[in-house]
Amino acid sequence: MPVPVFRVTGLTKIYDTGQIRVHALAGVDLEFYEGEFTVLLGPSGSGKSTLLNILGGLDTATGGHVWFREQELTGLGDRALTAYRRDHVGFVFQFYNLIPSLTVRENVALVTDIVDDPMPADEAVALVDLTPRRDHFPAQLSGGEQQRVAIARAIVKRPQLLLCDEPTGALDYQTGKLVLEVIERINRELGTTAIVITHNAAIAGMADRVLHFGDGRIQRIESNERKVAPSALSW
Fold it and tell me: Which residues contact 43 (CB under 8 A, 6 or more apart)?
């Protein structure tokens, strides 16, 4: 039986601007499993990023419950959520947030100071195929290379979870394929549970499951019997 990493029940999130109440999540029930690669598909405003932020401890729910293994995340205070993010979660966002004055290796190594058992920075750089560029600065890298540095920085602390919010959104499709190959490789070789948000339905074939979002709810779930290499996808 698959081992649940997350259990989500009745999850709601309401943003109150004072003039309007936005129901970003309207009662979500689901599970994510250990070592699974899951893609979240749906239009802007459908609730994907809100769910990912709650799973990653960056946001809190209005109602419902989220368990990470046996720990309930909903209701945790700021300090406990900070420890959860530090110990368990690697984030990759659309924008790379690299420090311009640091080299590739230094950007990745920066994270190793805050965790107990990081992998060597050079090992993380090698996993994203950037060893020849490890002494370069971000301004000397392409967009795809910078995103791969961001992935190396996320995985150097050996996180159990890799949460990616539109990691190819700022890239052209060819470069985006290379980045997706790296994320798929991390999931396959390290066994890291990966959850990836995208607007692009073409990457669905590489996932174990695809969750289709709309109006703050899961509209449909598709399961794939086997993964398809990103290079074989139709873009």
Answer: 199, 214
Please give the sequence-ordered ranges of beta strands (E in DSSP) within 43-114, or none if there are none: 63-68, 71-72, 89-92
Q: What are the contacts of 20-28 at 24+ separation with CB within 8 A?
A: 23/216, 24/50, 24/216, 25/50, 25/51, 25/54, 25/61, 25/62, 25/64, 25/216, 25/217, 26/215, 26/216, 26/217, 27/64, 27/216, 27/217, 28/64, 28/216, 28/217, 28/218
- 36 token code pair: 């699974």
* Order of all β-strands in the sheet with 21-33: 21-33, 4-16, 63-68, 71-72
Instruction: Point out which residues pair with 194 in neighbouring strands.
Output: 37, 162
The SS3 assignment for 110 reads helix
Split the chain (235 residues) into runs of 10 and give each run's mean pLDDT.
89 88 92 94 90 95 95 92 94 92 96 88 94 96 94 94 90 81 88 88 80 92 64 36
How far the first Cα of the chain sits from its last, in Å, is: 34
User: In 3D, which of 62, 65, 60, 61 has the Cα closest to residue 30?
Assistant: 65
- For residue 73, give both structure tokens: 């995340």
The overall pTM is greater than 0.70 = yes
Q: Which domains does the chain have, with CATH numbers?
A: 35-58+78-232 (3.40.50.300)
